[in-house]
């Protein structure tokens, strides 16, 4: 237990931001894939990790140019929908975090940095749970729960509070 007190903030920050990068990569790819499944094969229960949009394009492009063009337009619709949702998810974190970071950084003077940093990390971890549920049970869990999870991360300061408290 004595060695845990010697851990500095820098390794924790590195691990948090590395995890955030991989989280966003998986989130964006997973949302795009889920929308592809909804668009191209809504009745199938897919367990493999192949890209449905790419498979659909390859199958349809063998028939005719007009069918391939139709597939391109449908894939563009999927990309637009996924991009819109990803932007909404980002705004759901950033907007409340701008306000809560000001409040939480002021509270860090009273309660210390560690408590406030743990609140930000905890809120980020809680925000991942709806995303896991959405990818595991896509027909049951609504996408709005993922947006709600991101709002929780934003209110807790998200990982931006780690930077704010480190700079002080």
UniProtKB/TrEMBL annotation:
Keyword Cell inner membrane: no
Main location as per UniProt: membrane
Key words of the record: Membrane, Transmembrane, Transmembrane helix
Subcellular location: Membrane
UniProt entry tagged with the keyword Transmembrane: yes
Native organism taxonomy: Eukaryota, Metazoa, Ecdysozoa, Nematoda, Enoplea
Membrane topology summary: Multi-pass membrane protein
Listed GO MF terms: transmembrane transporter activity
One GO CC term, this protein: membrane
Species name: Romanomermis culicivorax (Nematode worm)
Transmembrane intervals: 7-25, 82-104, 116-137, 143-164
UniProt-recorded name of the protein: Major facilitator superfamily (MFS) profile domain-containing protein
């Amino acid at each position: 237990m004595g060695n845990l007190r010697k851990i500095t903030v820098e390794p924790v920050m590195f691990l948090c931001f590395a995890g955030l990068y991989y989280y966003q990569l998986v989130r964006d790819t997973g949302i795009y894939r889920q929308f592809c499944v909804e668009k191209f094969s809504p009745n199938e229960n897919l367990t493999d990790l192949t890209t449905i949009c790419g498979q659909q394009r390859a199958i349809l492009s063998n028939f005719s140019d007009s069918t391939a063009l139709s597939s391109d337009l449908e894939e563009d619709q999927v990309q637009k929908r996924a991009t819109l949702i990803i932007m909404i998810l980002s705004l759901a974190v950033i907007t409340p975090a701008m306000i809560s970071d000001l409040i939480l950084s002021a509270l860090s003077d009273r309660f210390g940095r560690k408590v406030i940093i743990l609140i930000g990390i905890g809120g980020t971890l809680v925000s991942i749970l709806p995303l896991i549920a959405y990818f595991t049970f896509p027909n049951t869990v609504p996408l709005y729960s993922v947006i709600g999870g991101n709002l929780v991360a934003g209110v807790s300061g998200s990982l931006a509070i780690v930077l704010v408290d480190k700079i002080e």
